[in-house]
Amino acid sequence: MSKVDDLNAMNELHWLIDMVQTIEVGLVVLDRQYNIQLWNGFMENHSGISPNDIKGSNLFDRFDDLPATWLKQKMESVFLLNNQAFISWEQRPYVFKFRNYRPITGRAEFMFQNITLLPLSSLTGQITHLSMIVYDVTDVAINKMQLDNATDKLQLHNQTDALTLLLNRRYWLQNAVQEFERFNRYCEPVSMLLIDLDHLKQINETYGHIAGDRAIQHVAHVMKKNLRTTDIGGRYGGETLGIILNHSSATESAIQAERVRAEIEAAEFTYNSRKIKVTVSIGICELTEELQSPDKWLDKTDEALALAKVSGRNCIKAIGTQL
């Protein structure tokens, strides 16, 4: 090899070392015992540990907060299978607990990381080392989480009735269909309630339509207070609210319905310094095999509600059950 070739080779080695040290990703090389052989400038800048100080140290001894068991399993698969492995921030936000100093994503305390594990072979072809490439993906992660959060808020807005903050009619009926299908699979008891505000027209004519809206909100508030975590409450339409009661027969549902009815009757709300009292009529239908569609289930519940109204209002009626 000529002196020119020697010089070119030295230059290429210098460029390669310079690139490894200044590249904007972390680069770590480990031997088979997880001892650190290379630690580039990115890793030094974010860990505060210089290459001279850490070279030859065991990775897991120097960083005892690493998920050792999980990470070693990943690394062993790379050594044994001669395949690369990838660790996403969505799988685990970070492996190295580096502080985040990016000004745009300052709300993230730690750096979100994607990591690639690559096998490194010797001149004989044996896999003797492994490289870890650490990518700072904090900006990507924060942007995605913000987008997901905005999407969740939009979805919640699209599912919510603006007046009562219950589920809107479309989404509540979708839940009714899902509970109908669940019943066909598991045959667990489930009942539907329709709650109708009595004499809303009279409230509108006496106090105004805003007072009527306040009355609907008042009933919705009392209803929500009495919902269990498994119950599904929504606004069916106008002054009619609905509840789907999972794991509840008609008789069990009537107990909860009576609690709601009695609390509404005893309570009052204030509008323009005037105290207003309201009552509700409630219809109940437990889902049975004879009801062959969600629409028929809803129709039967509506029949029970109509029966409560013609029975004098401020009462509860259930189809096929004496209450």
Automatic annotation (TrEMBL):
It comes from Shewanella mangrovi. Coiled coil: none annotated. NCBIfam families: GGDEF. Residues 188-321 form the GGDEF domain. Pfam families: GGDEF. InterPro entries: Diguanylate_Cyclase, GGDEF_dom, Nucleotide_cyclase, PAS-like_dom_sf, Rev_trsase/Diguanyl_cyclase. It is an enzyme of class 2 (transferase). This is diguanylate cyclase. One of its GO terms (molecular function) is diguanylate cyclase activity. Its EC number is 2.7.7.65. It catalyses: 2 GTP = 3',3'-c-di-GMP + 2 diphosphate. PANTHER family: DIGUANYLATE CYCLASE DGCM-RELATED, REGULATORY COMPONENTS OF SENSORY TRANSDUCTION SYSTEM. Its cofactor is Mg(2+). The lineage of its organism: Bacteria, Pseudomonadati, Pseudomonadota, Gammaproteobacteria, Alteromonadales. CDD domains: GGDEF. One of its GO terms (cellular component) is plasma membrane. GO terms for biological process: cell adhesion involved in single-species biofilm formation; negative regulation of bacterial-type flagellum-dependent cell motility.
